[in-house]
Fold this protein.
Amino acid sequence: MSETVTVDIGEYKYGFAFPDRSVFKTRKGLDEEIVRTISQMKNEPEWMLQYRLRGLEAFRRKPMPNWGADLSDIHFDEIYYYAKPTEDRKERWEELPEEIRATYDRIGIPEAERKFLAGVGAQYDSEIVYHNIRADLEQKGVIFCAPEDAVRDYPELVRKYFGTVIPFNDNKFASLNTAVWSGGSFIYVPPGVRVEIPLQAYFRINLESFGQFERTLIIADEGSFVHYIEGCTAPIYSRNSLHSAVVEILALKGARVRYTTIQNWSNNVYNLVTKRAVAYEEAAVEWVDGNIGSKRTMKYPAVYLMGPKAHGEVLSIAFAGKGQEQDTGGKIVHTASDTSSIITSKSISKDGGIASYRGLIKVYPNLTGIKSHVVCDALLLDPQSKTNTYPYIEIESEDVSMEHEARVSRISEEQLFYLRSRGLSESEASLMIVNGFLDPLVKQLPLEYAVELNRLIELEMEGSVG
Amino acid sequence: MERVRIEAREVFDKLPWPERSWESWRRTPLEKFQPEQRFRQFSTPHFNREEFLKTSPVLESGKPREGWALEVHRASNSWVCYRSEETQTIELYDWFSDFPKAATRVIEKRIQRLPDRMQGWNLAYPTHGLILKVPDHQRISAPLLIQLEEEETISLPHLLILLGKDSEAQVVVRFDARKAPGIFFNGGITYQAEENGQGTLVVDRLLPSEGGFFLSFEGYLKRDASLGSVEVHVGGQVSKSNWKVELEEEGAKGDLKGAYVATQSTHIDMELIQSHQSKHAQSNSLYKGVVASGGKSVFQGLIVVGEGATKTDAYLANRNLLLGSGARADSIPRLVIGNDDVRCTHGSTTGKLNEMQLFYLRSRGIPFQEARRILIEGFFEEVISSIPRVYQEDVLNRIAESLV
């Protein structure tokens, strides 16, 4: 049996680009003037400008991380930090410029909206160009809008929560985001309201050497539920782009938030994202994080369990192909008794790709009834590929049940032989085994988002095989 | 010997002192060691370092105690050896008076791999040391004991254990520093097993209530060679160990265990590296620890598999038992895998004593303290069973005493 297994993940289907037709773009590089310009473009109140400037100062002061993926190829001075694609925001797809509409048509967003989404936001480079939410949800008081609109329309909510989960000086990239953030989503779900169908945002980078810095803030008030899905794509350019988002989630007492990411950036995008949630008493936060694209990803969605009986969950899927480094994982911090957490990570490396799991489970002192379970599975598809596991476990309470396990395996020759003896080609057999590897995870996903994730993984795997 | 020392000093001069920002030292209270300050103190002319160098060859003196094949004791700056008939062929050398060629090659390899000045200091400026060589084809059934009584406040011993082809030996190393309160101990052990050399190595240390213990171990395993090791860390103020096993050739096998107990104001820090450089090698590790109120343990394990190390079979496990509140156990079991033809897994669990089992024992009339002791003994059984029988009770008693 040959050493190489050919599961191809094929052509990147979203690599097309349209010419730059931005109505406004800052010059390359970053300084105070650029931050002020961005703030001015958005007609922001003074407090937000001041907050941005504090972020800029922290960004300059903070060192680059000395661990994780290789980031030596990021040149902060070569990046455009802000580009405005249209004059204003639309609520009907028909009103968008043709090229932008064509982009979203090809990605399949308008169709998805009709079928199974309660609200959609679409971001093109720096700005949200399209936004819509179902009228019945709006009537119940659900807010789903661009964060700029929230700063203008709901300043008291924004000031109360913005930057409280991830402070401006949290890390270099969160500081950068604080300084130049643009676009993203703001969601507020009033007490007791359940948004049964998901809200979705779609992030698209069109420009070369561009930095996208969206900012998302989700507040789920007591006893509410919301599911948010984001997707990301970009064209293939020779020069690198940077995507550095900050996502903050607050799940108040008894609330449940599920946040699903299907990251499919082209392989010239550095994806360095800070995502963190706090879950209060009896609240639950679930991160579902699929990383398929990008050149380098460093992303470890976190849940801070702040009240008794809170629950946190991270499901992570990473696919590292040629030239890619997926440094992903999850962090759970137990600060209250009777809290529980689960981290499940599945990664696949192929064509010399590097998939790393990096995670943290931390339990504060003097707590009781803590349960945590972490499983990491890595599948290597060829001898050149690599996988790493770096789990950090810090326990300071006695009444804890903490389990961690990790496995590394490859497609076994016996499995391949069996399938081939049943008449499958080698690539069909490999695909079947890869699907089987991911199956225990995909099965856990609710239908509405399994549709999205399955479609992506199937597409990625399919076109290539045979 | 002089050549080795000069080489080690050249390497030492180029290395940095460990820093708190390093991953492997991030969780260690470096201020308790203060290696740089200690080194300055050590290097002053007032410190009577030359005293250590007044050494003599290992003295021979009668038979060992029952259960041991050979005993080497170090006290008052000299080595004394007690040996039985079957160990007449075992070669013992004092580090400064007699340094065989085979030892030079292995130590030179170690010197080239020194990561920092903490480990470098031990080989560049050792205060005492011993070389133990088991000749080819020599198989010794009873264990060998090397016991070092540390009397000085700065102690830098190095032990080199060489196992010849097809040889077999069990070695227990016991560092006893109870008579040296406030000691700064920086020890090194290097182990090499030639083709099909089968070794067992137990390292135990007895510490005063104040002082820092640092130990670095490196083991090199040739074709089909093996090492079964047990690190025992019970009590003391602060201790850190680096334990690295290189499976250099095909068929090498490492079975690496650890037992540790951290009670009130004890910090125990262990780093374990299972490094697979060649095909068909196997490594298995199991580190088990009890951390009581006010104690802290850190376990950082790592399986590294090189690109050519196919058919690797590696397992890494860490189990922590927490007793009472205010105990802290950090567990970081890592994998770095460079090829796809491997079977590598790791597991880590942290929990408390099983209440059902405790209840069962107490309902049978066993007092709480005794029931707890039985359960803890059971918890450590898998590790303790790898220690030569004659030494097991010593370790078990010390574990029990530390938890009263």
